[in-house]
Amino acid sequence: MLTVGLFWVWIAVVSLGLGLGLARLLRMLGGTLPPLVAASPELLSLTGLAGVAWLVAVLSFAWPVALGVQVGVSALAVAVLVAQPGEVVQLLRTYGQHWRVAGAAAGALAAVLVAGVLVHAVQPPSFIDTTLYHAQTIQWLHRFAVVPGLGNLHSRLAFNSHADLLTAFFSPASQLGAQPAFQQTVNSYGFLLLTLCHVRRAAQHLRPGGRPWLAGYYLGSLLLLLLCTRFLISSPMPDMSAAMVGLLLLGALLETPRLTAAGLAWLVVLTATAVTFKASAVAMLLWPLAWALRANSRDWGRRLSLLMAIGLVVALPWLGRNVVLSGYAVYPLAASLGAVVPDWAIPTPRPAADMAEIRLFALRPANDWSHAAGQSLAQWLPFWWQQHELADQRLLLILLASLTIMAGSLVWQRRTRWWQRVEYQLYGLLLLDCGWWFGVAPALRFGYTYVIGVAVLGLVLAGQTWPARWLRVGGWLLVMLTLAYGVKDLGSELNKHNTLMTHAVWPADYRTERAIVVEQLGPYRVYVGAHDGHCGNSALPCTDTLYAGLQLRGATLQQGFRMSAPAAEVRTRR
User: How confident is the model at residue 569 (pLDDT cuts 50, 70, 90)?
Assistant: First the structure.
């Protein structure tokens, strides 16, 4: 726990430094950032993480994400902080005042929830993809600049995510002897930001002069995300990174009906970064488009062009890394458009198979996804429901109840011109996002932002017109409910055998996976994971399936891989 806490401090310093620098650049575009963003270390830190991801992505074309890059980028962030001491001091002073306004109860709730996040962060990574390819991805990032055709070795190594770059940057670039890999700290830091921001804003809105219905959004979204995903905090999952960006942005948009050019640029940077974390976040791009339409600017066309250019700048390193890793613009989503670089492109049967697996997995996520092929909606839906965890099932029930209550509220109360209000427009966007998610890839971890957003926002909007006194009472009851959950969750984790003694200093390492040597490729021995292809942190190069025809493009691993044509049949399958 101690070491994870120290890593959080490192992440906070780097992300806040680059966040302040990026905020200054955005203000140069015209106007000011939303006051909520400018006065929020959490949102500025989130902005800085987007900057770190972009900067490291650019540097990764020439260098591994190792000590040199880590020291250089960290020094740049510290220099930005040192260059503007007055702004840093004012930000921290204002932040302290905000917590004093929030009150002791909010501080106690935040302390309990943060302690729970920390305890979960030091647990062994639990998600199956961690040992299948996440750990291998981080090893490749630590040892090499981006490797041409790496997806030919293991197609999942072509699933490019800038969240992996953040994970690699904020973990030791070499193994510390027998100590763990620290590859879970970035996601837990994201949960830390979400907890501090949502608890603080909720408490401020429950005070006189606030909007207590917003407290319902902040606490409700935080509670539902923790209930559904707390056991994934220790796993380096891009899905969770994108979800936390989305839920933090929703709160900022609910409080900011209009955005200046700088504010719109900030929103584009964050939503585009979420897409580079996880392609399922692409529906978030509707949000800056909607806020641009709300701007009522006379030069709307020029402003939209500027926003598109900013989004393209954010996306270019991601697109370039896709091309180098797989040969395609976006693997496997854009493989049907053809290879950009045929020399090392993954052979065409595999992108189609990987795309089909993603779609079928989303339909049947309990590892029996192949059975979803050809099923009708009536056949598929009951199995899809049964395969969700109990917490996810409850979330889906809350979603259905929220939709019903929201529709009934609009009919019963007959609110005038409700469609002109920002919160209802945002709710409509979330409904579109949910519809897109359910129709394309309804695995819940792909859509937590949309599902939680609709579930919580529908309920709080239905009660928005209640007397403020009732809403404050309901908000404080929700505070107590969240506190009770936090205490119970923290207690259950601490009661696990030797949790404090085992993880007081170091987090748990990844589960050890056995790999067997199956081929000599030039001077390198190629390994295959012995347990269903799971390599874990085994030595490089390791894969889940070794295809006949795999070749080195040169004499070293850095020069990458290609497949002899035509693509050969599978020699070893998991």
Answer: very low
Measured at the CA of 227, the angle between CA 226 and CA 232, to 5 degrees, comes to 60
CB burial readout 59-68, b (16+ within 10 A) else e: bbeeebbbee
pLDDT of residue 513: 76
Q: What value does the mean pLDDT of the chain take?
A: 89
Inter-axis angle of helices 162-169 and 261-277, to 10 degrees? 90
Own/partner contacts of 188-192, CB < 8 Å, gap of 24 or more, are 188/4, 188/8, 188/117, 188/118, 188/120, 188/121, 188/233, 188/234, 189/7, 189/8, 189/11, 189/12, 190/240, 190/241, 190/244, 191/117, 191/121, 191/226, 191/233, 191/240, 191/244, 192/8, 192/114, 192/117
Q: Per DSSP, what are the bridge partners of residue 572?
A: 546
Tens of pLDDT, residue by residue over 79-138, are 999 999 999 999 999 999 999 999 999 999 999 999 999 999 988 888 888 888 888 999
- Residue type, position 43, single letter: L
Band (573; pLDDT cuts 50, 70, 90): very low
CB atoms closer than 10 angstroms to residue 521 = 16
Distances in whole angstroms, Cα of residue 286 to Cα of each of 57, 275, 293, 428: 25, 12, 11, 11
Task: Name residues whose C-beta falls within 8 Å of residue 492's C-beta, 6 or more positions apart in sequence.
Answer: none
Q: Is 66 left (phi over 0), alpha (psi -120 to 50) or beta?
A: beta
DSSP 237: -
Q: What are phi and psi of 177, to 5 degrees?
A: 60, -125
Could you identify the residue written with the tokens 């107590």?
480
Phi, psi of 34, deg, nearest 5: -55, 140
- Judge whether residue 58 has pLDDT over 80: yes
Average pLDDT on 336-350 reads 90
- Give 291-301 pLDDT, tens digit per residue: 988 776 677 77
Angle CA 73–146–55, to nearest 5: 25
Structure tokens at 26: 């955005």
> Is residue 401 helix, strand or coil?
helix
Q: Tell me which residue of 367, 426, 435 sits closest to 399, measured CA to CA.
A: 435
Comparing CA positions, the residue from 40, 237, 48, 250 lying closest to residue 125 is 237
Rounded CA-CA distance 173/169 in Å is 8
DSSP 424-442: HHHHHHHHHHHHHHHHH--
Q: Which of 173, 255, 563 is nearest to 423 (CA)?
A: 255
Question: Which residues are registered as beta bridge partners of 542?
Answer: 527
* pLDDT tens digits for range 192-222: 999 999 999 999 999 988 999 999 999 999 9
In the chain, count H helices and then E strands. 22, 7
Q: Global pTM?
A: 0.93
